[in-house]
Write a structure and sequence with these properties.
The chain has 395 residues and is an alpha+beta fold. The chain has a domain of 140 residues: Dna Ligase, domain 1 (2-Layer Sandwich), CATH 3.30.1490.100. The strands form 3 sheets. The protein has a 5-stranded mixed β-sheet. It has a 4-stranded antiparallel β-sheet with strand order 9-12-10-11, with helices on one face. Strands 3-2-4 form a 3-stranded mixed β-sheet. Helix 4 crosses helix 13, helix 11 packs across helix 12 and helix 13 crosses helix 14. The longest helix is centred in the last third of the chain and has 21 residues. It starts with 5 loop residues before the first strand and ends in a 23-residue tail after the last helix. The chain binds thymidine-5'-triphosphate (TTP) and magnesium ion. Magnesium ion binds next to strand 1.
């Protein structure tokens, strides 16, 4: 029987790495990418800035108190989508089964590829080298017998990481990672575990499934039972029909509308540019949220008008979010998806009348094309608004 070998690839300090690629003068310095408005949040920080305690989803004001000499750059989502597509293209050369789960990470099923790429470690080294040579990005690769272990392994010795965990070492690996960094176990659950006097993965493993369900509820109980054994609870399972989606798990559960909407904005751009790149138009938009108690809901809509621009995706995604989220609710994961895709670039082609959205889509397509050639124009979110808003300028 062929052994299952899963790679999880995650680009290091992704948005910051792209900014450094486009402006090498920024290398080696603390760099923060994120919103510059008063209520702006950090999208990501270079590892130099992380040393000061700056991290994703932190309010920008706090980040600048921690690291006042950092360079701050507003996001260029279209450019990130473009580099992301380049990296994903290389991953697809290594495996015919690539499942992208966010703008900078993907799972590769590498089972049975030994004759082509060598042993898993060797294959991973080749992959890392190729990605770095061709895109300038540094990636971390986790190798495991399932998606859960691969995902946790890629995080284990980031940046520029390579970590392989075999089936027989799953539980040892989980113990080495520890309860605090167990995948999917956020702050709230950590507190609940502590109040039950569960402080180590070993202790958690000793509790029977039924008891965990009683203590934490059915889905969370079952999740903990499986994760602590290194068994994939199916959290990254494949969507059945063709879709383009992305999701993001926060380091800490988020109850701030600003952070949720900023994340939706970036994800709306990502899915829209992926659909433009793949020449697909979606009929349906969906938003998924998972709350701190692990309850998950999805909400979808199929608008009467065609879905043609990232701004439109964002506007609809915000409305969908409002149907499922009220202030006070803590969000662990948020996702945006485009569904019911059909081939095409413009359903209204040939018609005399162009909708606002179609104009925007054309602009976004132009930006994508220019960026592919290395010309960076303007943040896609600012398309149609000239001049760009002051708060989004470099300071
Ligand atoms: P991550 O892979 O979580 O972070 P990263 O690539 O910046 O750093 P590393 O993997 O080395 O730990 O997220 C990928 C990109 O997604 C990140 O560069 C910026 C964006 N992002 C946000 O916009 N908001 C967030 O809260 C997070 C976590 C990421
Ligand atoms: Mg990353």
């Amino acid at each position: 029987m062929i052994e299952t070998v899963i790679f999880h690839v995650d680009i290091d300090a992704f948005f910051a790495a792209v900014e450094i690629l486009d402006d090498p003068g920024l290398a080696g310095k603390p760099l923060i990418v994120g919103g510059l408005s008063k209520r702006g949040v950090v999208s990501t920080a270079s590892y130099e800035a992380r040393k000061y305690g700056v991290h994703s989803a932190m309010p920008m004001t706090q980040a600048l108190r921690l690291c006042p000499h950092a360079t701050v750059i507003p996001g260029r989502h279209a450019r990130y989508s473009e580099v992301s597509a380049q990296v994903m293209g290389i991953l697809r050369e290594f495996s015919s089964d690539v499942h992208q789960i966010s703008i900078d990470e993907a799972f590769l099923d590498m089972s049975g590829t030994e004759r082509l790429w060598g042993r898993p470690r060797e294959a991973a080294l080749k992959l890392k080298e190729r990605v770095h040579e061709e895109t300038g990005m540094t990636i971390s690769v986790g190798i495991g017998p399932n998606r859960l272990i691969a995902k946790m392994a890629s995080d284990y010795n980031k940046p520029d990481g390579l970590c392989k965990v075999s089936e027989s070492k799953k539980e040892l690996f989980i113990d080495a990672v520890g309860l605090k960094k167990l995948w999917g176990v956020g702050k709230v659950t950590q507190e609940e575990l502590k109040s039950q006097k569960i402080t180590t993965t070993g202790e958690l493993r000793s509790i029977p499934l039924e008891r965990l369900k009683k203590l934490f509820g059915n889905s969370m109980g079952s999740f903990l039972y499986h994760v602590v054994r290194g068994i994939d609870p199916g959290i990254f399972s494949e969507a059945k029909s063709r879709s383009i989606s992305t999701e993001h798990t926060f380091l800490e559960d988020v109850g701030d509308r600003e952070v949720l909407e900023e994340t939706l904005l970036s994800m709306s751009h990502e899915v829209m540019f992926r659909s433009l790149d793949e020449r697909q138009i979606a009929r349906t938009i969906g938003v998924k949220i998972r709350l701190s108690d692990f309850s998950t809901s999805t909400v979808q809509t199929t608008p009467a008008e065609a879905i043609l621009s990232a701004e439109q995706v964002y506007a609809i995604a915000k409305e969908l979010l409002a149907q499922k989220w009220q202030p006070g609710m803590k969000v662990r994961l948020i996702g945006v998806g485009l569904y019911q895709l059909y081939d095409g670039t413009s359903p209204l082609q040939g018609e005399l009348f162009e909708s606002e959205h179609e104009k925007k889509r054309k602009l976004e397509a132009v930006v994508l094309a220019l960026q592919k050639e290395g010309h960076v124009l303007v943040k896609a979110a600012n398309l149609g608004k000239t001049p760009p808003h002051d708060e989004n300028q470099h300071s």
